[in-house]
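Onboarding guide, step 5: your first structure request.
Type a short instruction followed by the sequence, for example:

Predict the 3D structure of this protein.
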Amino acid sequence: MLVHDAPPLATAEPVPDVATGAVAWTTTRQAGSFGFGSDEPVGPVMTRWSGLLDALAAYGIHRVASATQVHGAEVAQHGAGWRGWLRQRGVDGHLTAEPGTALVVTVADCTPVFISHPRGVIAVLHAGWRGTALRILDAGLDGMAQCQCPPDECHVHLGPAICGRCYEVGPEVCEAITGVRPATKGLLDVRQILADQAYRRGVVNLTVSRMCTLCDRTRFFSHRGQDEGRQLGVVALLPESAGQIDAQTPRASNESS
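The system replies with structure tokens like these:
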């Protein structure tokens, strides 16, 4: 499928009800792939990243943290004292309280989890079934709590991901998530599992995207749909002097859970 790159923010799906001073969104197929694991030449991918960095810099955001993800549960915390594009290894989540910082995960069926608090603390997590089984959401909420942001005061949003009607998994996956091994394959709704985990931690402000990356392949990349491309989940803390970033996707694509 041909991809005609659009500006990275112009076609994004925004996160609703994010805390004041923060902005968050998921990029789309129209913005092109940001992943480095495909056969696509690295030049076009780097051009897209450069476009994203330029768009963020226009709003005073000069620190962008990302990682080579491993489907784990490690969440890195990022302070001040650096500028540029950080790419760590072996990290699946990021957290910061520093204005002018953006946090990024790459996804294509896994769930981008966005966490924000009015105190000015944000996090983003890459949650596939392995990360969900390892309780990466708990790790993210623990990090927020260490910054004096308890779960019942946080807003959590579960972004576009493969839905429970599309995601068939083997017995070993169900067992890793639920602790019970079924006799056959079955359907798994990872976002519902994450929502349940959030509620058990005391989260009361939770929203969930209606978008399925496999059902909505014209809009998103899907690993199960044989796509090699990756979209981004991005959350950023704006400097006090910055204007609001405009990601122009209707908020009707999101719903409370």
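Each response can be followed by summary notes, for example: The longest strand covers residues 101-107.
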